[in-house]
Amino acid sequence: MNIIRYIIQKEFKQIFRNKAMLPIIFVLPLIQLIILSNAATFEVKNIKLAFVDNDKTSGSRELVEKFEASSYFNVMGDFPSEKLASKAMLKGNVDVILEIPPYFERQLLKNEKADLSVIINAIDGAAAGVENVYINQIVQQYNKKAQLELLFTNSSGKQLQNIETIPSFWYNETLNYKTFMVPGILVLLVTMVTLFLSGMNIVREKEIGTLEQINVTPIKKHQFIIGKLFPFLVLGMVLLTVGLIISKLLFQIPIVGSLGLMYLYTTIYILVILGMGLFISNFTDTQQQAMFIAWFFMVIFILMSGLFTPIESMPQWAQVLTEFNPIKYFVQVMRMVMLKGAGLSDIYPQVLKTLVFAIAMNALAVMSYKKIS
Amino acid sequence: MKKENVIQVENLTKMFGDFTAVKNISFEVGRGEVFGFLGANGAGKTTAMKMLIGISKPTHGKATVAGYDVLTHAEKVKRNIGYMSQRFSLYNDLTIKENIVFFGGIYGLSSSTIKEKSQTLINELGLHDKANSLVGSLPLGWKQKVAFSVALLHNPKIIFLDEPTGGVDPITRRQFWEMIYREASKGVTIFVTTHYMDEAEYCDRVSIMVAGKIEALDTPKNLKGQFQVDSMNKVFLKLARNIE
User: Fold this and answer.
1) Which site in A13, A287, A307, B97 is 20 to 30 Å from B116, CA atoms measured?
2) Mutation site for B-interface testing, chosen from A216, A228, A370, A373 by largest number of B Cβ within 10 Å
3) Any chain B CB within 8 A of the CB of A16?
4) Are A15 and B120 in contact (CB under 8 A)?
5) Over 50: is that where the pLDDT of A57 sits?
């Protein structure tokens, strides 16, 4: 036990003595938190809309006005032909082309049905999806109003379909994307810092040659590893704390659930990541190699965590892969506990899986750490 | 009285794939002896030494160090040996005192022993005003002297030195060897590799490795007689040339 204390003492001294590293550990992640939380948004604004009005009636103008009234769209003006509008889209001046066919109003009144052509620049698929939803909403509104007018002009007595959906968004009533993103980004930062630091740390001792010196001492593997990893567990927790404070003060993210539960889960989670860092460092000889491998896993874990793209929309095989992604569980737990106030029984499956990972990863790491080659 | 052997090596071999770095070497080293382990770069000295200190597994053969088999009881071997590598083995970003506390600590010394030992160590080396400066700021010669003292903290029976004086000035080398003799006179066995042939003359016995094999092993005096030359330098050159 004493031996572990000596290692922990030494690690902390080295961390705090490194005047270049300390700000990197604490300041950079928080800058990232602030920048990313403000920048990573799913809202699409200022959509450049071109319309080609082939109808030129009060009905068609009314539709265009609806777009003009929306805060999401910048109406670029009436293009004489679809060809010219397409050219503008090619140049990037236009995101969406709305083409109103000739006799649009007349057909709408006569047949109660008219076609609109909408062309969306889908180079950014996610944005295109969002734009499609916005356009549909506006067209629906227009449609409803048109039908209402139809009811008055047309005395056929046909029943008006009057179904309206009023969504209510639970746990994030205002659909504030920051509420959604901040817990997730906090997860990434805690993960990155602990993974990189733990992975680099032991490889660095390999590079300098001090690891050989350690291996010649009768120190036990578990003493060395616990002593090495514990300081980074503490650092991860401090980072989480600072991150939570910023989330609360700067972004007004509600913290509904139990902080104790959040810290308990984070402890288990960081053990997984530290085990991984150690495992990587056992198989690499230079910090460069370790960094590269750590990044390889980070990118996969981040993109398959459900933070930026919903896991439900991934292909089946990818969804199976995400079962082994610790970041996915951390993101889920943070969102559930922070936003929903989930209790231990709600996050039980995540806790259990993470615990299994922590045990497996650290067992692998300890086994692959060799004092003798 | 029969001399007590603290290192006993029989047919020790280390292979990396097809390459045999160390071929069937056998020798023994007695208690309190200063044993010079010589060889050109790449002759397999460091590989052989790593097997003796329990951080590299022998492919064949057997080695007993301080009474323990290096293959089966590597951790017990480690408790009884000190090691100082050619690459600098202290932490540059810790002070002399902190290095002493750390290494004393991981050898399981009590904190009072550590305190006492670090005091004597600093006194002996005359480093009072440097005790709290970072090791990285010390000249190489001083670092090596501190590293040697730190390797002795836990009173090892044998100390392994891998080119301890590489790049160190002649005066400091001289002082270093005085430290070595002082320890040897206390009964500590010294196992040292070096490229300096004048240092080889200081050793009680010397082995010379060429291409993974021990080609000569005797006292410097006998070796010089055997090769009919007047210095270890010439012994070394003659031997290396004959083999090629």
Assistant:
1) A13
2) A216
3) no
4) no
5) yes
Contact B127, B118 (CB under 8 A): no
Cα separation, A325 vs A335, in Å, equals 16
The tokens of A38 are what? 């403000």
Task: Please report residues of B whose CB lies closer than 8 A to that of A3.
Answer: 105-106, 108
Domains, chain A: 2-40+174-368 (no CATH), 47-153 (3.40.1710.10)
Cα separation, A357 vs A367, whole angstroms: 15
CATH of the domain at B62: 3.40.50.300
Q: Please indicate if any CB of chain A lies within 8 Å of the CB of B53.
A: yes
Q: Which residues of A touch B49 (CB under 8 A)?
A: none
B210 HSE (CA, 13 A, CB side): 13
Neighbours of A60 (CB within 10 A): 22
pLDDT tens-digit map of A137-157: 888 888 877 777 766 665 554
Question: Judged by CB atoms within 8 Å, which residues 217-256 of A form the interface with B?
Answer: 217-220, 223
Question: Distance of CA A333 to CAs A30, A177, A191, A259, Å?
Answer: 21, 17, 14, 12
pLDDT at A161: 47
Whether the predicted pLDDT of B169 surpasses 50: yes
Give the H or E element holding residue A302. Answer: helix A287-303
User: Given a cut of 50, is residue B1 above it in pLDDT?
Assistant: no
* Separation of alpha carbons B165 and B83, rounded Å: 14
**Residue B89 binned pLDDT confidence (cut-offs 50, 70, 90):** confident
| Nearest residue, CB atoms, A209 vs list B53, B85, B94 | B85
What is the DSSP code (8-state) at residue A315? -
Question: What is the rounded distance in angstroms from the CA atom of residue B163 to the CA atom of residue A176?
Answer: 65
The stretch B157-176 carries a mean pLDDT of 91
A167 touches chain B (CB under 8 A): no
Residues of chain A with Cβ-Cβ distance to B132 below 8 Å are: none
Average pLDDT (A111-124) is 80
Does any CB of chain B come closer than 8 Å to the CB of residue A285?
Answer: no
Predicted pLDDT at B195: 86
User: How many contacts (CB atoms, under 8 Å) link A and B?
Assistant: 78
Ranking A109-123, A276-290, A331-345, B78-92 by mean pLDDT, the lowest is A109-123
- Whole-number mean pLDDT of chain A? 85
Give residue B186's pLDDT band: very low, low, confident or very high (50, 70, 90): very high
- Shortest Cα distance, chain A CAs vs residue B78, angstroms: 5
| Structural domains of chain B, count | 1
The Cα–Cα gap between B72 and B54 comes to 9
**What pLDDT does residue A162 have?**
46
Q: Which domain holds residue B210?
A: 1-80+192-244
Q: What is the band of B243 on the pLDDT scale with cuts at 50, 70, 90? A: low
- Strand, helix or coil at A167? coil
A140 in contact with B, Cβ within 8 Å:
no
Amino acid A152: pLDDT = 66
Q: Rg (Cα) of chain A, in Å, rounded?
A: 28
Question: Rounded to an integer, what distance in angstroms lies between the CA atom of residue A361 and that of residue A353?
Answer: 12
On whether any CB of chain B is under 8 Å from the CB of A208, the answer is yes
Do B102 and A10 lie within an 8 Å CB cutoff? yes
- Measured from the Cβ of residue B178, the count of other Cβ atoms closer than 10 Å reads 9
Contact criterion met (CB < 8 Å) for A13 and B55: no
